Amino acid sequence: MRKVRCNLKVILAERGMEQKELAQITEIREATISELCRDINKMFPRTVIDKIADALQIDDINLLISIQDEKDGSRSD
Q1: CA proximity to 21, closest of 32, 12, 9
Q2: Torsion sign across C-alpha atoms 64, 68, 72, 74
Q3: CA of 32: how far to CAs of 1, 54, 60, 70, 72, in Å?
Q4: Closest by CA position to 51, among listed 21, 28, 18
Q5: How far apart are the first and last CA of the chain?
Q6: Cα-based torsion angle of the residue sequence 51, 26, 38, 36 in order, rounded to the nearest 10 degrees
Q7: What φ, ψ does residue 31 adopt, rounded to 5°?
Q8: 3-state DSSP helix/strand/coil percent for the chain, to nearest 5?
Q9: Using CA atoms, how far apart are residues 52 and 3, in angstroms rounded to an integer?
Q10: How far, in Å, CA of 40 to CA of 36, rounded?
Q11: How do residues 34-74 score in pLDDT, each as one tens digit?
Q12: Of 13, 17, 33, 51, which cross-links 26 as Cys (Cβ 3.0–4.6 Å)?
C-alpha cells in the first residue's frame, strides 16, 4: 500500500530553519506546521502548501510531498 508523506521536517533541517520561524513567515499556526513535520496531517490544504512553497522557495511539490510504499518506506516515483 502507498502512503502520502510530508517531508517538511527534513526540508527545515536542511535549511537550518525552525518550525516557529516558518510559522511566523507563513502566518500558519505553529500547531499546523508541527503536524506537518510529524507527518500526522490527513489533509494538505492548498493554501498551506502555497504559503510553505513560497516561503521556502520550493518549485517542485515532490520535494515537500512524496508517495512511499508503506511496507518498506521507499519512494514511489
Answers
A1: 12
A2: negative
A3: 26, 17, 21, 23, 27
A4: 28
A5: 14
A6: -30
A7: -65, -40
A8: 50, 15, 35
A9: 21
A10: 6
A11: 999 999 988 889 999 999 999 999 999 999 999 988 776 55
A12: 51
Enter the C-alpha cell of residue 72.
Answer: 518498506
**Would you state the cell numbers that stand for residue 8, as one nine-digit string?**
517538511
Kindly report the pTM of this predicted structure: 0.84
Assigned C-alpha cell, 5: 508523506
User: What span, in angstroms and rounded, lies between the C-alpha atoms of 34 and 12?
Assistant: 11
Distance CA 20, CA 67 (A): 26
Q: How many CB atoms lie within 10 A of CB 7?
A: 18
